[in-house]
Write a structure and sequence with these properties.
heterodimer; A: alpha+beta; Nucleotidyltransferase, domain 5; Actin, Chain A, domain 4; 5-stranded mixed sheet; 13 helices; 27 strands; B: alpha+beta; 2 domains; 3-stranded antiparallel sheet; elongated; disordered C terminus; protein-folding chaperone binding (chain B)
Chain lengths: 527, 177
């Protein structure tokens, strides 16, 4: 059984699995690159193109191309293509299908069981939407895990028995995230997370493009602006990306900006580049410091490991600044692929453990044998239980019988170990109530609060009450929160056995819609 | 149970454990052999692939040179002042293309009128023209002949038929009236 890990990113996505020497390996797509642009082009009603070609096609058919769909996950927005509305789950499903199909082409092994990563700040609704995207793509999503946790797994700093505090600094192409994770007695907890979703490596490139163009303008004020010419602009963009990479290894480099038959020779040193982008780097450092302060406020003072994630974290200035500011040398290894690899490792180990737990020893041993694991390694994996905790508090809206004040009664609190299964008793407020409105609330801010405005309503439903019951008629509410943060709510009254079942899906799709969509979209070709 | 029997059972258990362990070690050894075979095959491919990988930065530098010279030749040609430099620049571009070809990168044959093919063309813009056809080649593409793989798509402009909308008809009819 091959299980895969998928990093479903805002701009790029990536798929990996554990190979026959128990190493995580990234599968290249058909275009021969490790990562695939998360861009979907609805070429015709029954043909969808994903990846670089879809990105290129945005020039010709901008209205049929969708990018950055991850930002809409968990929200009720659709995009209509060729007359059919598509939900964010469905559009993401196309990206997942492309990854799965290409991995199959590369390895000859079909992709079925997967673990998909999401940002640490994703709440229950976004996680649920991600899981549904996987189901629509025809995949069996065994778990959803946070990106920084996946990265920490790749870096090998989440070893049960060794408590650790980890700071993850993730500078991607278009987003920046920083997260503090703790591992304590085998429990993994995301202590806090922060970031800037409009800041990324592309901003560094923009600065270089502008610098090169400005130097040209200064030297040749009598010719047209190089940035007004699409072709020159594209060349400058390519030159800037190259320049950024070159300055990661060399300390100075020359770029000749050529336009309208003129040349400006621009020499740029690493120091100059760093000075041009100092404020961008400072912003990431400020956010990182703020995150550490928040963690301190939650009782986590300091950290043992600093791991870097995201292709832009390769810039030497990042390591230098973090070392200087935080006094710790960061670890940097394969930062662009660390999340997908960690998801693959987690998927592998979790599947092995589940097989053992379900009594399928033969299945587990076969899986271990195929990955070439020794007896010792097998025992180590079997004994490793990485538990996760709730990232936020969940409860229902209740009214105090004496003051009639509305508040949120929490059933699950942030940092409760998962899976959690909590039942609490409530009662009707008035005589002869015929129904009780159950409103499920999720903590909105960084700190749990029972004020209604500090929480988001994520699901609701009515529980019928038998006739002629006086106030105080008892009802029971059960919250079941699984390890990936998905919530199932049951409300019941025990007299007639009337039940209300809710699965959290704010702005999400119902189970029936997911099944329908899976069937309908399976007829669409994805390439 | 007699002490001897006890010992026997112990011995049997140890033997069973040992047999199991040996079997597993055998399994692992066989597994390793398979991996060595695969690594060997991969290594062969890698040696060839490494050469291509090493050529990548050289090629990207040559593409840039080729683009720059071609573009400048085209720009000077449009100025229409019998510039002697134009044939020289064109010859230089050809020389660069030949060096590229010697690394295995051959120019893609793309010309205006070709139907848009996302596998070969990277659209830079659209312009009025025959819908879905290449109207101009902005920069040439290259393919790795021996593997029939596109290394760089040709940057092109794609034709888009002017939209037939009611709005654009209105001024016409007004003028006619």
């Amino acid at each position: 059984m091959a299980v895969h890990g998928i990093d479903l990113g805002t701009t790029y996505s990536c798929i990996a699995s554990v190979d026959d020497v128990s190493r995580p390996t990234v599968h290249r797509n058909q275009e021969d690159t490790d990562t695939t642009p998360s861009v979907v082009f609805f070429e015709t009603p029954d043909n969808v193109v994903v990846g670089q070609t879809a990105k290129d096609s945005a020039v010709i058919e901008p209205d049929l191309v969708v990018s950055r769909i991850k930002r809409d996950m968990g929200h009720e927005v659709t995009r209509t293509m060729h007359g059919r509305p598509y939900t964010p789950e469905e559009i993401s499903a196309f990206v997942l299908r492309k990854l799965a199909a290409d991995a199959r082409t590369a390895t000859g092994i079909p992709v079925d069981d997967v673990v998909i990563t999401v940002p640490a700040y994703f709440g229950a609704a976004e996680r649920d939407a991600t899981r549904k995207a996987g189901r629509i793509a025809g995949l069996n999503v065994i778990d959803i895990i946070s990106e920084p946790i996946a990265a920490a797994i790749t870096y090998g700093v989440l070893n049960p028995g060794q408590d650790a505090r980890i700071l993850v600094y993730d500078l991607g192409g278009g987003t920046f995230d920083t997260t503090v994770i703790t591992l304590s007695g085998g429990d993994i907890e995301v202590v806090c997370t922060d970031g800037d979703h409009e800041l990324g490596g592309a901003d560094w490139d923009d600065r270089l493009v502008e610098h090169l163009a400005e130097r040209f303008r200064q030297e040749h004020p009598d010719v047209a602006d190089p940035l007004d010419d699409k072709q020159t602009e594209q060349q400058l963009r390519r030159d800037s990306e190259e320049l950024k990479k070159t300055l990661s290894t060399r300390t100075r480099h020359v770029v000749r900006v050529m336009h309208e038959g003129r040349v400006a020779k621009v020499e740029i040193t690493r120091e100059e580049f760093e000075a041009l982008t100092r404020d961008l780097l400072d912003r990431t450092i400020d956010i990182t410091r703020k995150t550490l302060n928040t963690a301190r406020g939650k009782g986590v003072a300091g950290f043992d490991h600093l791991v870097l994630v995201g292709g832009s974290a390769k810039m030497p200035a990042v390591t230098e600044a973090l070392t200087k500011e935080l006094g710790v040398t960061p670890r940097l290894q394969d930062p662009d692929l660390a999340v997908a690899k960690g998801a693959a490792l987690y998927a592998f180990e979790e599947t092995y453990r589940r097989l053992l737990d379900s009594g399928d020893r033969a299945g587990a041993e076969e899986m271990a044998a195929r990955a070439g694991l020794s007896d010792g390694q097998r025992q180590e994996i079997a004994g490793r239980t990485i538990r996760t905790v709730a990232s936020r508090a969940f409860g229902i809206k209740a009214t105090a019988s004496n003051t009639r004040r509305e508040y949120v009664a929490h059933l699950v609190n942030a940092n409760d170990p998962l899976p959690a299964d909590v039942t609490e008793g409530f009662a009707t407020l008035d005589d002869f109530q015929t129904r009780v409105a159950i409103e499920v609330m999720e903590q909105a801010g960084a700190v749990a609060s029972d004020l209604i405005e500090d929480n988001n309503k994520i699901a609701e439903g009515d529980l019928k009450i038998p006739p002629d019951k006086p106030a105080g008629f008892p009802i029971e509410v059960t919250f079941t929160l699984d390890t990936s943060g998905l919530l199932h709510v049951t409300a019941r009254e025990n007299e007639t056995g009337e039940r209300l079942e809710l699965s959290v899906q704010i702005g999400g799709m119902s189970e029936e819609e997911v099944a329908e969509s899976r069937a309908a979209l399976s007829r669409v070709q994805v390439s | 149970m007699l002490p001897e029997q006890d010992q026997e059972v112990d011995l049997e258990n140890s033997l069973a454990r040992l047999a199991e362990q040996v079997a597993r070690e055998h399994e692992r050894a066989a597994h390793r052999e398979q991996i060595i075979d695969r690594l060997h095959a991969e290594n062969q491919d890698l040696r060839r692939g490494l050469l291509q990988e090493a050529l990548t930065p050289v090629r990207s530098g040559l593409y840039r040179l080729y683009d720059t010279v071609t573009r400048e030749a085209a720009r000077r040609a449009t100025l229409d002042r019998g510039d002697d430099v134009v044939p020289l620049l064109e010859a230089l571009a050809e020389e660069v293309a030949e060096v590229l070809a010697r690394t295995g990168a051959e120019r893609l044959e793309v010309s205006p009128g070709d139907p848009y093919d996302p596998a070969l063309h990277r659209p830079l813009r659209t312009e009025p023209g025959e819908d879905g056809r290449v109207t101009a080649v902005v920069s040439d593409g290259f393919r790795l002949a021996e593997q029939d793989r596109v290394l760089r798509k040709a940057a092109v402009a794609i034709g888009k038929a002017p939209e037939q909308t009611g709005e654009s008809d209105t001024p016409d009819s007004e003028e006619n009236a």
